[in-house]
Write a structure and sequence with these properties.
two-stranded antiparallel ribbon, mainly beta, 4% helix, 13-stranded mixed β-sheet
Length: 231
């Protein structure tokens, strides 16, 4: 699902050993209502990548999520992904450089990892720091792919994996098990096992509360139905 690749690359994931099927599970509302901007930057031996950081804007209501991926400078195109948890649908919305708007709609998918799980070791420390007015707790973890550190705002009821559309990922290899970690990570660094490459994630412009329904509007888009997409 869209929104997964940066995390997936750092966690050693691939489409091998993954089962993709229609999500027909009972409706479960999002726990997080609000919006934020996520910025992801890769570093090699401490030096930032020559590529611009990946930027994604995110909105969430009890029954919908919207991810807008910031266009690459010079390309002029835009892409959004709208997920309707009640309708069990996913829409990829695209606007080209000429302003033409098209949307591809399919049944919402769920992904199950079917390979061997990699046991991750997680430690919730007593160390804290303030990030944008939120007291964040330092959480560290290690797996076969390398170490990671997250600063988690425990006052925000959210699960980052589910929000990004990667959940449910039952038995997902190398994905941190957040069952004992409540809250939203506002900063996170993931390093490969060789210690050369790091992906830094930061959440900015965080707003908790109701979202204007017009954010999820698909007015002006030409709809294309794709029933078998992702199967």
């Amino acid at each position: 699902q869209t929104g997964m690749p940066p995390m997936q690359q750092q966690s050693g994931g691939s489409m091998d050993n993954m089962k993709i099927e229609d999500d027909n599970d009972p409706f479960v509302p999002n726990t997080f209502t609000g919006s934020f901007t996520m910025e992801m930057q890769n570093y090699t031996d401490g030096k930032p990548s020559a590529q611009a950081p990946e930027v994604m804007h995110f909105w969430s209501s009890p029954d919908k999520t919207l991810m807008e991926f910031q266009s690459i400078p010079g390309q002029g195109s835009e892409m959004k992904m709208l997920t309707d948890l009640k309708e069990k649908s996913t829409c990829i919305m695209m606007t080209d450089s000429q302003g033409n708007k098209r949307a591809m709609k399919s049944h919402k998918k769920k992904i199950t990892y079917t390979g061997d799980a990699d046991e991750a070791h997680i430690t919730v420390t007593k160390e804290t720091k303030m990030i944008d007015g939120h007291t964040c707790t330092k959480v560290t973890g290690t797996s076969k792919e390398g170490p990671w550190t997250a600063w988690v705002a425990k006052d925000i009821d959210a699960n980052l994996s589910d929000l990004m559309g990667t959940g449910p990922m039952r038995g997902k290899k190398n994905t941190p098990d957040w069952k004992d970690v409540k809250g939203l990570p506002l900063e996170m660094d993931m390093t490969d096992k060789d210690g050369h490459t790091t992906m830094a994630m930061n959440i900015k412009d965080l707003k908790v509360g109701s979202v204007d329904p017009s954010v999820f509007s698909m007015d002006g888009y030409q709809m294309i139905e794709i029933p078998g997409m992702g199967q």
